[in-house]
Design goal:
The structure is a single chain. The protein is an alpha+beta fold. About 45% of the residues lie in helices and about 20% in strands. Strand 3 and strand 4 form a beta hairpin. The chain starts with 6 loop residues before the first strand and ends with a helix. The relative contact order is 0.11.
Length: about 130
C-alpha cells in the first residue's frame, strides 16, 4: 500500500475517467469504502482536481524512474556486446544464461563412485 503524500504518475485509465496519463499527482487519501472499486484519492495540482483511482492506474515516480534506468542500462550493454562481438555477454543479457555455468554444472554432475555410494547411504540412513 502506498503512503500518503507520495508523488505518483498516472500510467493507465482502465475505467475511462479521463485521467491525465503521464501526468503526476499526490496521494491524499485512501478510499476505504468496500462498496466501490477505487483504492486511492489523488490530487492533481496542475488541473486543481481530485481523482478516485484504482491501484493499477498509478505507479510511484521512483519505481518508474528505476525501471527506465534499468532499461537504458540493458540497451547500452546490448549495444556494447554487439559492437565488441562479445557473444557471451550478449547471451547473458538476452537469455540470462552464462557460458561458464554449463561447465560448472558438468563438474557437479561427475562424482566418484565412492561419493555416490556415500550419498545413497546417508539418504537411506535418514
Amino acid at each position: 500500500m502506498l503512503r500518503l503524500g507520495e508523488k505518483i504518475i498516472f500510467i493507465a485509465d482502465r475505467l475511462e475517467q479521463n485521467l491525465p496519463i503521464g501526468g503526476y499527482g499526490y496521494l491524499i487519501a485512501y478510499d476505504r469504502n468496500n462498496d466501490n472499486i477505487f483504492d486511492y484519492v489523488v490530487r492533481v495540482p496542475k488541473e486543481n482536481k481530485h481523482y478516485y483511482v484504482t491501484a493499477t492506474d498509478i505507479e510511484l515516480e521512483e519505481v518508474l524512474l528505476q525501471q527506465e534506468a534499468e532499461q537504458v542500462e540493458r540497451e547500452a550493454l546490448i549495444d556494447y556486446a554487439l559492437a565488441t562481438n562479445n557473444e557471451a555477454l550478449f547471451r547473458k543479457i538476452m537469455n540470462g544464461e552464462s557460458a561458464v555455468e554449463p561447465e560448472k554444472e558438468r563438474d557437479k554432475e561427475v562424482q566418484s563412485r565412492e561419493e555416490f555410494i556415500k550419498q545413497i547411504g546417508l539418504k537411506a540412513w535418514i
